[in-house]
């Protein structure tokens, strides 16, 4: 079985927009929201759909805290605006139980029409398949025992997903499933597609060159 862990912070709008998707998840899996001290109605709304925990703010901190409370043997980490189907949960279980997979991610689909969005998601999916380095909005899943063996997500302010998936690929077999994970286009729409692409490319280049993560995080917050 799978435990789905969703870190949240002031996500009232996202949580209340499409409650059916959370209801579908809660019927098929253990659904855990980890709140980072929200000041809106996030906790109230999340409690309608699953278990709500509270921790200090920080995506890595929140996800690690949720993993410690998870009851099931497989962990799936989602962003609040991600959508996955119950069938995808079944396929994750099959992949891990039958094929000896340590973990992986899903195939991203941005929830917006337009050629530019197809190109963005195609680039990200190809990158994930070639490098086995996964981003959080691609739905990272992993065996719980392997997750804790690797120490969970590193306690850093940004790129915890990249650092963890690098460790995961060294541990054993990882995959990118064909099952779709729907991702919100909000970050692309907020600042504009070109500006967002340039900014994310800049942040990634800074990360690869070894810039301090706190400095990168400050730029990322400006982008959001």
Report on the structure:
There is one protein chain. With 224 residues, the chain is of the alpha/beta class. It folds into 2 domains: 2-184, Alpha-Beta Complex (Spore Coat Polysaccharide Biosynthesis Protein SpsA, Chain A); 185-224, no CATH class. It is 51% helix and 19% strand. It has 11 helices and 7 strands. The protein has helices at 12-17, 19-28, 42-46, 59-69, 86-99, 115-131, 144-149, 160-171, 186-191, 193-208, 213-223, and strands at residues 2-8, 30-35, 51-54, 74-77, 103-110, 140-143, 174-183. A 7-stranded mixed sheet has the order 3-2-1-4-6-5-7, sandwiched between helices. The chain is globular, with a radius of gyration of 16 Å.
Estimated helix fraction: 40-55%
- CATH-derived topology of the largest domain: Spore Coat Polysaccharide Biosynthesis Protein SpsA, Chain A
Number of strands: 7
CATH architectural name of the largest domain: Alpha-Beta Complex
Q: Biggest sheet: strands, sense, closure? A: 7 strands, mixed
Beta-strand residue fraction: 15-25%
Spatial sequence of strands, sheet with the most strands: 3-2-1-4-6-5-7
Secondary-structure element pattern, one letter each: EHHEHEHEHEHEHHEHHH
Average pLDDT confidence is 92
- CA-based shape: globular
Head-to-tail CA distance between termini: 34 Å
CATH homologous superfamily identity of the largest domain? Spore Coat Polysaccharide Biosynthesis Protein SpsA, Chain A
Number of helical segments? Answer: 11
**CA-based gyration radius:** 16 Å
Q: Given the helix and strand composition, which structural class is it? A: alpha/beta
Domain count, please report it.
2
Low-confidence segments? none
CATH class of the largest domain: Alpha Beta
């Amino acid at each position: 079985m799978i435990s789905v862990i969703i870190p949240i912070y002031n996500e009232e709008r996202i949580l209340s927009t499409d409650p059916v998707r959370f209801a579908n998840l809660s019927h098929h899996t253990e659904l855990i929201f980890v709140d980072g001290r929200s000041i809106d109605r996030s906790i109230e709304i999340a409690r309608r759909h699953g278990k709500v925990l509270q921790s200090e703010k920080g995506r890595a901190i929140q996800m690690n805290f949720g993993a410690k409370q998870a009851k099931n043997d497989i962990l799936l980490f989602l962003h609040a605006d991600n959508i996955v189907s119950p069938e995808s949960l079944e396929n994750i279980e099959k992949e891990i139980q039958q094929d000896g997979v340590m973990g992986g991610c899903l195939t991203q689909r941005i929830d917006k029409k337009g050629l530019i969005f197809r190109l963005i998601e195609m680039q990200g999916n190809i990158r994930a398949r070639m490098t086995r380095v996964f981003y959080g909005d691609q739905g990272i899943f992993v065996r719980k025992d392997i997750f804790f063996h690797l120490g969970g997500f590193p306690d850093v302010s940004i790129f915890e997903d990249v650092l963890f998936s690098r460790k995961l690929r060294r541990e054993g077999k990882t995959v990118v499933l064909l099952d779709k994970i729907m991702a919100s286009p909000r970050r692309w729409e907020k600042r504009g597609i070109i500006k967002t692409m340039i900014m994310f490319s800049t942040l990634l280049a800074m990360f690869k060159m070894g810039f301090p993560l706190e400095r990168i995080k400050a730029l990322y917050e400006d982008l959001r």
